[in-house]
Amino acid sequence: MSAHETLHIDGVWRSAASGATREVLDPADAQPLALVAEGGTEDTDAAVAAARRAFDSGPWPRTPVAERAALLRRVADLLQRDREDIALIESRDTGKTLEEGRVDVDDVTNAFRYFADLVVNESGGRVVDAGSPDIHSVVVHEPVGVCALITPWNYPLLQASWKVAPALAAGNTFVIKPSEITPLSTVRLMELLVEAGLPAGAGNLVTGAGDPVGARLSEHPDVDLISFTGGLPSGTRVMRAAAPTVKKVALELGGKNPNVVFADACATDEGFDTAVDQALNAAFIHSGQVCSAGSRLIVEESVRDRFVAELARRAARITLGRGTEPGVECGPLVSAAQLAKVEEYVASAVAEGAEVRCGGARPAPSAVRPATGYFYAPTVLDYCHGAMRVVREETFGPILTVETFRTEDEAVALANDTEYGLAGAVWSADTARARRVAARLRHGTVWINDYHPYLPQAEWGGFGKSGIGRELGPSGLAEYRETKHVYENLAPRPVRWFAG
Ligand code: NAD
User: Fold this and answer.
1) Which of 38, 100, 252, 300 is catalytic?
2) I need a labelling partner for 441 at 20 to 30 A (CA). Which of 51, 138, 336, 353 fits?
3) Among this protein's residues, is 291 annotated catalytic?
4) What is the pLDDT of residue 3?
5) How far is the CA of 138 from the centre of ligand 1 (A)?
């Protein structure tokens, strides 16, 4: 494959039919990092046609489940073999630290292994008692067909794997379209799938823009399922474009995630330190460019001053820089557009009355290297409230807003006051209270006295406008399966419904 042959269609690496290319930038210095093919409608149609042929007449959907699982396990082994290389690609492309890149590779390795085990264990049908010895009734699962997989820029390898692994496990074929901003680890993943032995056409990759590539996949009549992870505006466009063909749609969208801290969690020095430390991690890891980022701190009023002061002190000390440099704790934002968006949110918050406790600006060029990167200082905004845009909208940057409450009911009301519902946390030393609050939160993942962990065995997804459907867990496999009832009459006789 040469530098810009990043389309993989019907088993062949190629450049775009138009010959167009796109420069991928390194967000740490805004310099070109790689050149990829800029796929268009013609390439997308070719990829869908290849996936269609591979599904209708190729070997993959008819491959025994144990062999499909074995391929997923080979991919997991290859991911571990190339762990450092892939972590480096992810770090350079997204700006995240190298260590975060390694964590991502390990997590997706686990996801491939999980779906390999799950599909073998759950491959059997369900026999239904139809009430007669002459009837054999069985419910079986089959692959959906051609799956279009569209992913965002913040966790490119992880989001691709959460879709590719279950799609292949279930016997589907796919076309994947990574974000045009960070496509490189998906190209690497495709290479590993080929090396692991995936048949031609079963997995296809089109690098290119949301419109036309993603838009064409969403409307395409030969696509049976679309699984999309990204922002709410694009997600609604995907759903609208998919409607006329009534394809299955799974959406993993944004979040505006509350991190609720009760005073009793801070009663001891150790408890206080843990809650502050985890609030920092919740909000600022990957510079806040995380769908589940704990970007709304909702803290009990009696501990607010102490908590926010310590949080701001520690946030101001976060070391920014190129993610591959030792000692760097936070990388840059992914693009100039993302940086401009974050600056605009902070300005609007200040105009609406928020108080900047730390950050609130780009770091001085002398304070961060490379000086040309898209860096923004971790920012804590105090005295925020639910009418502010910065509290309501997903900023996707290193911005933590602070709101306060006095009662448990108030804490729950604030935490649920969002159109999203992806994730949230509650911190309390009172187990009964923590569980009570967790039960009332309208979010797809709720952490108690923790923030951010997830498990491949446990479903991930959102309530409200955070999406439709679930990834990971048994439901993450079920998304990629059709259910069929086969009713077999062992002693057929006329029914004589009609007299003639
Ligand atoms: P985005 O919506 O801008 O882009 C996501 C993908 O959609 C990209 O590949 C893009 O090219 C494509 N796209 C854009 N317009 C399209 C269209 N009209 N039709 C089809 N595809 C189109 O999102 P982003 O900025 O890349 O990613 C950030 C967003 O992703 C945030 O909102 C974040 O919360 C969300 N996200 C959600 C999860 C989750 O698990 N719920 C995980 C990661 C990111």
Assistant:
1) 252
2) 353
3) yes
4) 66
5) 39
Q: How far apart are CA 370 and CA 377, in angstroms?
A: 14
| Residue 244 burial (C-beta neighbours within 10 Å; 0-12, 13-18, 19+) | exposed
Q: What is the rounded radius of gyration, in angstroms, for the C-alpha atoms of the chain? A: 24
Say which residue the tokens 């379209």 belong to.
Answer: 177
3-state SS assignment for residue 224: coil
Other CB atoms within 10 Å distance of the CB of residue 5: 15
- Is the Cβ–Cβ distance between 239 and 210 less than 8 Å? no
Amino acid at 461: G
289: Cβ below 6 Å to ligand 1?
Answer: no
Count of alpha carbons within 13 angstroms of residue 281, beta-carbon side: 13
Tokens at 497, concatenated: 């419904």
- Nearest-atom index, ligand 1, CA of 255: 34
**CA–CA separation, 190 and 205 (whole Å):** 7
Between CA 382 and CA 170 the distance in angstroms is 48
Three-state DSSP class for residue 47: helix
The values of phi and psi at residue 310, to 5°, are: -70, -40
Q: Other CB atoms closer than 10 Å to residue 216's CB: what's the count?
A: 25
Task: Report CA torsion sign: 469, 470, 473, 477.
Answer: positive
Q: Exposed (0-12), middle (13-18) or buried (19+): which is 90, by Cβ within 10 Å?
A: buried
Q: What is the C-alpha to C-alpha distance for residues 297 and 117, in angstroms, rounded to an integer? A: 38
Angstrom distance (rounded) from CA 365 to CA 370: 8
The residues facing 258 across adjacent strands are 296
Q: Identify which of 207, 219, 234 to mutate to test ligand 1's pocket (most ligand atoms within 8 A of the CB).
A: 234
Half-sphere exposure of 375 (CA within 13 A, CB side): 26
471 in active site? no
pLDDT of residue 417: 98
Residue type, position 325, single letter: E
Mean pLDDT of each 10-residue bin along the chain, 500 residues long: 86 98 96 97 98 98 97 98 98 97 98 97 90 97 98 98 98 98 98 98 98 98 98 98 98 98 98 98 97 98 98 97 95 96 98 97 90 96 97 97 98 98 98 98 98 97 98 98 97 94
Cβ proximity of 419 and 463 under 8 Å: no
Query: DSSP letter string over 87-137?
Result: HHHHHHHH---HHHHHHHHHHHHHHHHHHHHHHHHT-S-EEE--SSTTEEE
Pocket flag, ligand 1, residue 155 (CB < 6 Å): yes
Task: Determine whether the shortest distance from the Cβ of 422 to ligand 1 is under 6 A.
Answer: yes
Which pLDDT belongs to residue 371?
87
Sheet holding 423-427, edge to edge: 355-358, 379-382, 399-405, 296-300, 258-261, 423-427, 445-448
- Dihedral sign from CA coordinates of 432, 438, 441, 442: negative
Q: CB–CB of 333/339 below 8 Å? A: yes
CA neighbor of 226 nearest in space, from 290, 163, 169, 292? 163
Q: Is 456 helix (H, G, I), strand (E, B) or coil?
A: coil
